[in-house]
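Researcher: We're teaching a course module on how sequence relates to structure. For the next exercise, students receive a sequence and then see the predicted structure as C-alpha cells, so they can try to spot secondary structure elements on their own. Here is the exercise chain.
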Amino acid sequence: MQATTSPIAHIQRAIGRHLSHARKALLDEKLDDDSVHNARKSLKRARSGLRLLRPLDEKNYQRGNMRLRNVGRRLSGVRDHRVLLARIAELLADEDKPARRKLLLALRKDLYNTRRRDWRALRSHDALERIAETLGEVARDVRRWRLPPESNGATELAVEILYRKGRKALARSRKKPTNEHLHEARKQAKHLAHALEMLGNGATPKKTKKVLSRAEDLGDWLGDDHDLAVVESRFIALPQADEKPKRKLRATLEKRRGRLQRKALKTADKLFRKKTRKMLARAAERASVSAPAD
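Model: And here is the predicted structure for the students to work with:
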C-alpha cells in the first residue's frame, strides 16, 4: 500500500524543496546569471505554494511571502538587466536609423553600468549568506506552521481564490491594459500553473498539460511585453537624448507590444475559463483525499 500524508504537509514539503533549490543555486561557487534565474524560479514556486496554505494562517502567510518577495527583489536587478540587454540587442538588429541607434546604444551603456553595480552588491560581503539564511528561516517557519483543527478544504478554498484573482486580473487588463495590470495578469497565470503542478505532484494529465502550456505562453508573451515596457520607460528617462527619436522608437515598441498583448489576452481567455476552474477544484479534491508521502 502506498504511504500517504496530508495535502497540507505535502505542500509544506514542496515549499521546502523549492527554497532548498534556491539556496543551493545562490551558494554555488560558480554563481552566474543562470544560477540567479534558477533561484528566482524556485522562489516563485515557493511563493505559489504559500498561497495554497494562505487560508490556514494569514499572518504567517504575509510574513513568509514578504520575506521571499524581498529576496526576489534583491535578485531581480542582475537578471532583469540581462534580459533588457537582450531586448536592446534585438532592437538594434532591426534598427537602421542613426538617431534611434544612438538612443539604444546610450541605454545599453547605462544598463551595463547598472548591471555591474547590481552584481557587485549581490556578491558583496555576506549578502548571499544573509539571503540563504532568510530562505532557510522561511522554510523552517513553514514546516512549523500550527494548523487549525479544521484544515480540511483549505486547498480547495486556496485554488478558488487563485482562480478568482486570475479572472479579475484578466478583466482589469482587458478594460485598462496598463503595465501594472498586465504584469499582475502574468503573475496570476504563473501562480495558477504552479498550483496545478504542486497539487499534481508530478502527474500531468493531457488536459492539465494544455493548461500549463497556455500559462507558459501567456507568461512568455506578457513577459516580453513587460520587458519592452521597461526598455521604453528607460530610454524616455534619458535626459541627454533628443525627443524625436524617442517618439519614433516608442511608436515601434508600442506596435510590438500591441501584438504581444493581443496574443496574450486571447490565450488568457482560454486559460481562465470555467473548465480550468473545475480542473483546479478536482486537483485540490484529489490532493485532499490522498497525497503521496515525500
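Model: If you want an answer key for the exercise: DSSP finds ten helices and two strands in the chain. The chain has a mean pLDDT of 87.
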